[in-house]
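TEACHING EXERCISE
Course module: macromolecular assemblies
Task: Read the component lines below, then compare them to the predicted structure of the full complex.
Student: A.B.
Group: 4
Components provided:
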Amino acid sequence: MTPLVEIKDLKKYHPLRQGYIFSKRRGEVRAVDGVSFSISEGETLGLVGESGCGKSTLGRTILRLEEPDSGSIVFRSEDITHIKAKDMKWWRKEAQMVFQDPKNSLDPRMTVGNSIEEALIIHDMGDQKKRERRVKELMIKVGLEPDLMARYPHELSGGQQQRIGIARALAVNPKLIVADEPVSALDVSVQAQILNLLADLKKELGLSYLFIAHNLWVIRYISDRVAIMYLGKIVELADKKELFRSPLHPYTEALLSALPGKKDRIILKGEVPSPVDPPSGCRFHPRCPRRFDRCEREEPELKDICKGHFVMCHLY
Amino acid sequence: MRLAAYYWERTKRQRPAMAGLAFIIFLIILAVSGPFFTVSPTQVNFDEKNIPPPGFTLEQSIYNASSGGFVTTVQRGTWEHPLGTDGMGRDMLAMLISGARVSLLVGLLATGIAIIIGALIGITSAYFGGAMDSVLMRATDIFMTFPFLLLLILIVYLFGSSLTLIIMAIGLTGWTGTARLVRSETLSLRTREFIMASKALGASHLRIIFYHLLPNTLSSIIVLATLSIPGAILAEAALSFIGLGDPQVASWGNILNAGQGSLQTAWWVAVEPGMMLFFTVLAFNFMGEGMREAFEPGGD
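Instructor-supplied answer key:
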């Protein structure tokens, strides 16, 4: 499989400032701190991590909704890391986002049809008649009655709102969709519907997903490969089956042991350290049940252990 | 449009707001149609000065040259001048209607100017943030601390008094509150996901500002505008009251100013424009409050 997007050593630090005109830099939040991976055509990469580990920032930075500090983002041999806002329109058509909170992701003062149509207007896709037809098509595609297009977001249910959000993302015929916890705000029964919709759309339209979630069940259901993120870094990346069968990184082991039905639950000590001042050496070492001397001093690299099973740990 | 209908339904339930609205509509009809049924508000008639409204009397001691003493005469109100006349025999009703026109003009235009400037500055400031925000907000602070009445007096002193100038001056100094409100609303909107969704779609700054941020702050802007109209009306009245108004037009402030000297005898000359000011300000406030209540999110 050829990579659709390739990310190399991507970094995004949020500066902590005080004041504006005479601002002082008071350190920075290392939200994304040297992340590399690629997503193949037609693949779903699941990205798991605790809240605050930088997974949402990573998704937004790849879409260039936030400016990367260093590293590179390459889409089909086209480097988009530093393209300027005015040259970004084509990239906006290739990559779209589905958001966590469906209610918040729709403008409350716009009919949902207009929200979808906005995508078509921005990219000059057809006259009014054609656009209206396309909006109806998209609504049918995401499993909604086209009559709902005249409604306002607050008149729809959470699931319907999220379908609109998906239709809006699909309007420009993107190849890559970053789904930032798209089901975590929904009822469990609705979650399954939306996940099935996303899976069907992927098959039908040949999409690739970067699927961000903290729910392991969801990740297991939708992903082809899974990346585990901890404090701004990807600590393990592998094929889904491989990862769930034989997790290597102690953090992954702990996460998976929390799934119901597992014996020997590993309880991690302490809290996630602050990304402003991450621990020396391996970032996980203060909480790691299997740490040794080297972990404190030396930062491990992300190594390919066997056939695409990457892990960032001194044990291997 | 269905949203507008929805808010109208909710505003309709606010009784004070509806009373205010009724008064304002009544005032607008009077102001527009007044010239067709009243005499000229500037028509002076010294034979008919200080006539009280019908039902009231005014006792006046007039020096009678032929008898060499004071004679007490009783001035009775007539229906020819339903609100009486002032010290120069001008019809009070005609003057009050002319004043209504002035006050509404000042209130609406000055507030319009202030709201447009304030909304643009507030949105720009919050949306672009950083240095832009600092500069614009410090400018707003400076404008806010500047003594507004003093500035108006200075402008009138420098450029002479005309209604246009007064409207401009009130509008150009009154935008600070709007700027702050719109800024704070925009700050919270800016981080909402639907703004990010538009950015992800490739929407331009102008599109985001005019299609998303502005419509979402509009209800607060309308409420604030309604609540600022009385301020503008009172500012004009205050200027006129201290003698800096446009002398060419009969505004409530001018009439108040003229009437204050004869408060003990011809009390209606001052009381009538005062009452008009009071009720107009009250009407706009009721209406603004009612709309604020109706636009409140989450209510019913």
